[in-house]
Amino acid sequence: MTAPTCRHLDLQPRRPGFAAWVRGLDLRQPLPDVVQTELRQALHTHEVLCFEAQPLTPEQHLAFAQVFGPIATDSLLDRRPNEPLIDTIVNDAERPPNIDVWHSDMSWHARPPAGTVVQIAETPPLGGATCFASTRLAYAALSERMRTYLDGLMAEHSWEISGLREFLLRRSPEAFAQAQRQHPAVRHPVVLRHPDTGLPCLFVNSLFTRHIVGLDPRESQGVLQFLYQWIQRPEFVLQHDWQPHGIVVWDNRSTQHYAVADYWPHRRVNQRVTFDARG
Q: Which residue of 9, 52, 87, 158 lies most exposed, with the fewest beta carbons within 10 A?
């Protein structure tokens, strides 16, 4: 894919073919249409965009996320009553981090979100990085025989095999039962064609993917374990170290992420807005 020219953004690539800094952009101000267009193009090209630290109000956070797509309203995570569209993940001595697993957000959804805008409002003294993996690069690096084998396969995804099961049961039996009714297991292609770029990406993850449809369970497990380990190769991974109020946008269709849980018992506050595909 040839990267479109961005005339209004200062883009600094962070890895070969993956992730970029966007320098000098004040996200607290309304962004011109041409800048919004180039930001969307940059996200399609680089998959992860990192921005200099700048505290965003809830309104500014939501407005920036809407540059990339309509705000996703469905979530099983905690949301503050006065901020019903912002997920807030607080980890501290009483609430240890527990999402240190490679995953794509809500792949158990029939239409998984297109991406997420995260602001880490409070950072620990050390640690607390987030790692991102390009499943586009991971697919492209597979052998031709493996790509042929995977094309056309479907995988089943479910939130019930993740920690969300225990999280909802602790909230209430009613919350768990409601989630079961609203979100049954779904199937997605193992090789997803990105709806905006058309490029193939691996779309299985160790947190939510239950099995590959139509394969013997042992074959399914062997293939999935290979793909999980393959996606995590350093060649496809960026580790991002946060500053207070640092901001990152990622494409949920072509990346996975891993929140490094090395900072406990210190405090870390993650504020995130998820967006759906445009159009």
A: 52
Sign of the Cα torsion 149, 150, 152, 154 reads positive
* The pLDDT of residue 152 is above 80: yes
Residue whose token pair is 């952009």:
25
Alpha carbons 13 and 9: distance in angstroms, whole number:
12
The residues near 32 (Cβ < 8 Å, ≥ 6 apart) are 8
* Structural domain spans, the chain: 72-275
CB 268 within 8 A of CB 259: no
CA atoms in the 13 A half-sphere facing the CB of 129: 8
For residue 53, the surrounding DSSP H or E stretch is none
| Predicted local distance difference test score (pLDDT) of residue 163 | 79
Architecture of domain 72-275: 4-Layer Sandwich (3.60)
Active site residues: 103, 105, 257, 272
For 83-99, the pLDDT digits (tens) are 789 999 999 999 999 88
DSSP string, 103-130: B-TTTTSSS--SEEEEEEEE--SS---E
